[in-house]
Amino acid sequence: MEKGLTVLTALVAGGVIIVSLLAAIIQRISVIPVTVLAAIFMVLLLMSGSERFSELSEELERVAFFAVLALFIISFLVLYRPV
C-alpha cells in the first residue's frame, strides 16, 4: 500500500511539473522555481523505495515543504498582483 501511495504522490509531483511549465510558458517565468522543486521531489519520491534514500527524502521533505509552500505563495502573489 505504501509503495502505491509513493507512486501516486510521484505522479502528482509530475502533474505539478506539467502545470507549472504550462503556466511559465503561457504567463511568466516566475513559476520556474516551483517546476524545479517539483522535479526534485518527484525523483526523491521515486527513489524513496530503497532504504538508503528513505531517510534522506524524509528529512528533505520536511525542509522543502515549507520552501515550496513559500514559493507557491510568492508565485501567486507575483502572478496576480494588481496592475
Question: Which features would summarize this protein structure in a list?
Answer:
single chain, 83 residues, mainly alpha, 3 helices, 84% helix
Report on the architecture of this protein.
By secondary structure, the chain is mainly alpha-helical. 84% of the residues lie in helices and 0% in strands. The protein is built from 3 helices and no strands. It has helices at residues 2-26, 32-47, 51-79. Helix 1 (2-26) runs antiparallel to helix 2 (32-47) and helix 2 (32-47) packs antiparallel against helix 3.
How would you summarize the topology of this molecule?
Layout: H1 2-26, H2 32-47, H3 51-79
Helix pairs in contact: 1-2, 2-3
Question: Could you give a quick summary of the protein structure above?
Answer:
The protein is mainly α and 83 residues long.
Major β-sheet profile: none
Number of strands: 0
Distance between the termini: 48 Å
Which descriptor suits the 3D outline?
elongated
Structural class: mainly alpha
Percent of residues in β-strands: under 5%
**Rounded radius of gyration (Å):** 14 Å
Count of runs of 4 or more consecutive helical residues: 3
